[in-house]
Amino acid sequence: xxxxxxxxxxxxxxxxxxxxxxxxxxxxxxxxxxxxxxxxxxxxxxxxxxxxxxxxxxxxxxxxxxxxxxxxxxxxxxxxxxxxxxxxxxxxxxxxxxxxxxxxxxxxxxxxxxxxxxxxxxxxxxxxxxxxxxxxxxxxxxxxxxxxxxxxxxxxxxxxxxxxxxxxxxxxxxxxxxxxxxxxxxxxxxxxxxxxxxxxxxxxxxxxxxxxxxxxxxxxxxxxxxxxxxxxxxxxxxxxxxxxxxxxxxxxxxxxxxxxxxxxxxxxxxxxxxxxxxxxxxxxxxxxxxx
Length: 291
Description:
The protein has twelve helices and nine strands. With 291 residues, the protein is of the alpha/beta class. Strands 1, 2, 3, 4, 5, 6, 7, 8 and 9 form a nine-stranded mixed beta sheet that branches.
């Protein structure tokens, strides 16, 4: 049993922390909205703290799952940040999707304090978190990863050590770049089938077992056809992630023309009020064809 601090009890962090409690670990949680931390502790057990520093006191492991670079910087290196309370030899795991730059910065800051760090963004969404079936891509030293893997195996189905500090975040960018292109392709194929007056169920049956198959097609084809988007990974979040990828591309010299184009398509979805809709709402900007 480990003494763990979990910072960020949202739609992803809450279920992950619950898995850790069920596995027998001693948890203290912190959330910027205190009422969420109190409610989580009442439902799942464990304790809640008034600040990241207080939560991290005496913790062997600190895990974060917050919103963006600024949030992560605040809860780790801020005035009441967790790093100030963490002991040499402790482990820090970050599940936030953030820039590779801050992941590398945290690694350097932690190294000076004797803290092991793993940047570990995730794929699998809320359902993956709730079912303990997340895919996690990790950056950090071999030693840090070995320690983190034992903990993450409680709530993940696949855990891959990609490379050094920041490698987890850049791999997550690869994930989002690929998803953006696939969703645009599925959206165009669906609208083309509708314009051709085809039976959409039969089209899916015909193409989903071949080279066109994808997770997005398997899990979103039907809901996209029915214009249902009130669930899943939000467009607002996807735009944040694509923005990180486009910024990193300017640093590493790569070109992302399709990702940049799809990002602008998502901006149209946002402008139409779909910022909190699932990323499959990309199809909503395409006309359905002649009646």
